[in-house]
């Protein structure tokens, strides 16, 4: 199967795509057209559909799947599609979602197994119980196997959050022997739970928007509330030192309050300070890796995550 | 009864005080002395106790009450006490704590009544239930009638937090008719609950320190957790719009995240934005009022809350 | 009468509008067209006039009134007009300016009366004299009954500044009993005079631009100069404490100098500090109220004044 | 005559000094002592007066002149005086103020002449008239020949402001040929008038404090008000372009508003932008020159104006 | 010869231009077109070439010279060219580069002579030797006679850097007598060498881009490395005080590190501090001069270098 | 052997210490005394020497070694020494420097071996040659085995820099497998060379001050100059991509320029970005580890590196 990013100018594309955005316009000849953003797991492309009928206009839905017959053209230096034919996909088309959105390169089951192994190895029975309870929650379980770690910046693809968690766990495991002043179990628990609030801050794994609670509360405090909810359910005292420490690490993982990056409190333990930097490393490395991969042979490429151009190296 | 602040240089002081801090030293003649900070409701004063015996040194405890016989002297332009005799107070002395620490000028029962009346007048049954449950909690009830609103900056005296809440409620009530875009009940609920976390962020109402949970979680998130805990107990859904709104107002009441003043999220409703400014007004007016009152006849006085001098204005 | 904002896609519009901006272009067929921004009191809309003759092109003037016959179309998701016929309005058309620009919902005479009543109630004869002199100035009088409080952010409509002043006076009156450390008369005088410089910082009430003196001096200092000019005229000593206090409140009403928001000096009295927050409240509440009203049924809407999205509440 | 800074440890000092500050204390033997800061034109030194009588304590006044008989000692690495005898100076002592406070190295008449010559050479009759009127004012005239340019930072000595003005005029004259986009007369007028408000922001030239109007209005706006007052007196229209330009340069001479350094408006002409940098250069060069001169042979010295150490540079 | 900026709407243009950028597109009739940015020494203009053949599309190269036959039209309020005929220039066309790009108004030889004279007048034999060696380097010599001082902000034209250097030398020479605390020779050497790294930070003088070393190292450190390289070659000790001072001035010339403007170290000598402000003055005056010259008769014009509008003065 | 930190109040101390600072004073009885800061590897303590003779005063030198006979007293809550007898140490005393200053807990030879092994394993022959040449330099070799990584903040003890380097190499080695977008050899080379300039920025390993070149150039650029000097010596082209990359990582290791933390350029490669965070982690973990170790049993301790209190964990 050939993906959108692989087609060259002039080629014909026949296949299924996801509709990411839709905008109607009126051409100078008074006929209507649609500007669509279509995507599959290789990325997104703009598409033009001229002389659109009212029926088709209504039938094409954002976050829906369509089948297209189109040609690749160049417009202002970028590839775009000009669509000849389009129709919504039906269930009989048996399109797999995983072919339509970008997805983590690591299989979800492999990630999940690594996560489970870490949880099994926790020495703190309290932290272990909290995390097991979280992962056993049907909704959390389901979302954690699907959600990205963010809308744009890093690990922004199917089960990207799980990949980010496992990557952090691996980094934490490797650095822990160097820094005995860090609390191993709290660090692991923070890797797993720091972004758990994102499962409710974002709407869905396909074309995620921010939810109303997500915008009003934010994923840091949402994560802390999930932890506290579980503690209440399991009769774990909220004043337990390890629980306090985990909640502190979640609340401070965006760095110092004074920087205005969104922490509710500044990190005040070696564990919280270390985690903030690990999270920065893992998210920035992922974002820069994507930026350079997308840039093909270019020596320099613009990296949104740093708001400047980055260098391939040589 | 005459308070510490009223004694003049050269006068003799005999009476009860609270020990706020204690520091031992060795004089050039090798004898030991104590530097004490003593206080009553009129404020604090430094005191010197020369040639202190080990027994007395041990018997005098920080946050404890002592009876002194001392003389007021001037040292580097400030009054200080030189103590001739000192002993810890015993229960038979029947000293009232309220004579020993600064206290709100408004009687606690009057404040509490006003608070209750506002709660009774809430139209939202959900917000009313949450606040009634909070105020019915024995610990919250007790602390709210005693705690200051802060260690240093504003309403930093016995039941100062309650005075701050009632003052905010009054201000809110008066401005609401001007701004119909504001949610009345959520605004009232925020006035009452925004600093409720301080009852656990601070150690006690006499000589408050920050607690460990207070430093790790902060009173904004602590307040949100109290609200959520009550919702769970009362089976109020956490996704209820009014509950979300109240929690949002608590989390955002320190202003915009980008300013780095400690909000976990920036205010995103008219109610949240209004409350932030009301809280600024009430705390700054209280602090500046104290600064100018303490400055006596001085035209200008240094106001710590603004980090600059303020003008009496006449 | 039906306003621009009320027309739906496909409807025909015949009526008078104000020309807010005009831009000429050349179409691919080499004929000229105009892009116009047309407005009435319900807001603005973009309009296209194809094949425009040189005569019409010249006759249509920015800030002028035109009569149009046009159709509503959708372009890139927004409504726009395609104009079939257009001509400048003549005096015989008897168009009322108030139907053409957004206007305060409160009648100007009602606002003026409230303002006068406050002035009459001032106990300070000096402040009363200054303000009476200002309001008696023909130019100030005329402009204050017409000017908006700003170009874009808040109260940006006909006699919006007067509405803002009266709203501030009401808020001040309601909060004053809570804060006796505030100087009542100076606070009222600041409400009235704080933005008086805007009457000269802006060019006109219809389509206001910044004037050259406005950009070079700014409305804070311009306001202070108006006060000082009146004092000289009335032989009020410039060193009078109330005059100094009023000028201080005007100069500091954008908040602390260190924040870089344009105050010439940081607020150094309770009155100045309170007024800054009242002004923030009144301008932000007005702006957020407009944002949410314009957003119709949308749960979230982008508020330029906060540079983020705001929530309707429920 | 030998100045305070020239005495070495162990030497006896007999002579006149200015009392800059006074603080009373009680020694361990219960006798009173005074800590004085004494100064002459060479600088300041701390002095101790043991066993002070109430009469002497009252007779010694801050900003007064005293005659002392004292010995230089070293205390914590710094020289201090131990006073054996002290009395207030009487008029019969005929002490010249200029021997008692630091003074500009350039004679005041030489500076004044240079200033007058520049004013005479102005081509703009309006700017010339404004400045002549200002310099003809008896109070401004008198103060300008005495006041420092600041309390601490730069040109902080007798007629330091006049020296700063003349130094700026010289620098401006020399750079003008390079930058024809700058308005010569406005630049000269700004050099002369930019800090004219300091003559009222500061209390006196001997031991200057900030005045109440100085703290409430600030010297930028005070300078603009002086200019406007003169214009009114001379019937010069306030809207005159050169007057606007001069006022703009005064209001913007602390740099960009966003930096929070106290400008009321950001510089918006080449002249205003150039003047800001010239003022920075002249004040910083003066301050660094003093820092290095005071540091004697030290390779590095702490410069308060930069908040870091500076290098002599040899 | 008539330059691009001089042509009016409707006129025909026949002549040579430099291709600054090129972008291909597909028109609604499916034919290809080119959007070109064409320039000569009077500035740049957008140009449209419809129905372009593949041969022409390939033959037109960015940074190449073309001969065009075109018409000036107005598009969205700006002039643009519609090209009828176009071909690449051949060597037989004998086009002079200096007619094609903006160029300093001062002849290069005049600038060079002034530079040489300053170098000859240096009293420091070490600084003189370093600069002579630099200017004798064939590559530096060649580039310094061609490179702009920057891509966009100031002196952004042919041999603009040399003009900037000579202008700084003149300003330095004129201010030096006022500030004896400044090291004359180090100041002159800094004027000459402060931006020498730009000769390698930028790719070429015609259409400069940032080079890879330029982006990775920056012109400040590149300049220091050039100085150190010459010292090693000439056996000048790297610890020489004048060399250290020169390098310090280069590294600190973007102002204080804390401001985040790119200095590697904050200025710590009077010379370094003075140079920073001189550089600011010379670059800002040049940029504002250009802004106002380009603005023709407009009273206000947007100045990118200040990110705000500037005023012509009157 | 017993170290200073181990003595209790009242105990007698006889032994050798390092003199860290010295300050003379005059007591109220007119006799001279010395305030000394004395230290050994366990830390520092203030000491008082009353009635000091001029001979002893001169004989005691900062950074010199003395033998003392003293008693531990408590002064303002801190231990201090009162010295009965003191003399400078002579060579016959055979005091080992390592007993007198704090020292890394890891033996220097073990660290050196690990460093050598990493260098031997570099695949890049160019980077390997540069580092081998650096380590073979007698001065660098000697200093690297002795110098701290800083004066105060982290690894501030004997061969602390070497410990920091080896710790970074270990962390880098462990994280590299996770981030293939990072250049292994450049990362290792940066770990080794990033602070190499500190060997010249600081004066000596015993009581390090900042050198004049250190303050003028800073250790980032000094490090880059060392690399470039070696390249010139070894005929490695300065434009080599790996050399550029190493220099970029050194220059950017203090984070983004905009933050004002001292980088000469912002990190623009995955390797540079990763290294910045690794350096933050290693320095902060070391500093927090020391803070908590020094705090003994205290739950909370003030950490200078974070400018706030940190929590032990539980």
From TrEMBL, chains A, B, C, D, E, F:
GO terms for biological process: rRNA 3'-end processing. Signal peptide: none annotated. Pfam families: HD, tRNA_anti-codon. Residues 21-88 form the OB domain. Residues 162-281 form the HD domain. Keywords: Hydrolase. InterPro entries: HD/PDEase_dom, HD_domain, NA-bd_OB-fold, NA-bd_OB_tRNA, YhaM_exoribonuc/phosphodiest. GO terms for molecular function: hydrolase activity; nucleic acid binding. The keyword Hydrolase applies. The keyword Hydrolase applies. It comes from the Bacteria. This is HD domain-containing protein. It comes from Brevibacillus nitrificans.
């Amino acid at each position: 199967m050939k993906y959108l990013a692989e087609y060259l100018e002039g080629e014909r594309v026949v296949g299924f795509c996801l509709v990411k955005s839709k905008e109607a316009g009126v051409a100078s000849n008074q006929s209507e057209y649609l500007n669509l953003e279509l995507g599959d797991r290789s990325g997104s492309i703009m598409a033009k559909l001229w002389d659109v009928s009212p029926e088709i206009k209504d039938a094409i839905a954002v976050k829906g799947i369509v089948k297209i017959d189109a040609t690749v053209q160049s417009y202002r230096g970028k590839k775009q599609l000009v669509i000849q034919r389009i129709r919504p996909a039906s269930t009989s088309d048996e399109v797999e979602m995983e072919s339509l959105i970008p997805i983590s390169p690591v299989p979800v089951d492999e990630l999940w197994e690594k996560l489970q192994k870490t949880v099994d190895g926790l020495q703190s029975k309290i932290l272990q119980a909290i995390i097991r309870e979280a992962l056993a929650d049907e909704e959390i379980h389901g979302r954690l196997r699907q959600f990205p770690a963010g809308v744009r910046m890093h690990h922004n693809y199917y089960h990207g959050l799980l990949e980010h968690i496992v990557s952090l766990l691996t980094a934490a495991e490797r650095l822990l022997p160097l820094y005995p002043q860090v609390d191993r179990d709290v660090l692991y628990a923070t890797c797993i739970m720091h972004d758990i609030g994102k499962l409710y801050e974002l709407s869905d794994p396909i074309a995620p928007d921010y939810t109303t609670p997500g915008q009003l509360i934010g994923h840091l405090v949402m994560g802390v509330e999930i932890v506290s909810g579980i503690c209440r359910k399991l009769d774990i005292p909220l004043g337990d030192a390890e629980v306090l420490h985990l909640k502190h690490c979640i609340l401070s993982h965006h760095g110092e309050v004074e920087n205005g990056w969104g922490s509710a409190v500044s990190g005040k333990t070696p564990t919280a300070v270390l985690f903030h930097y690990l999270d920065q490393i893992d998210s920035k490395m992922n974002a820069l890796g994507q930026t350079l991969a997308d840039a093909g042979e270019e020596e320099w490429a613009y990296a949104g995550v740093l708001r400047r151009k980055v260098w391939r190296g040589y």
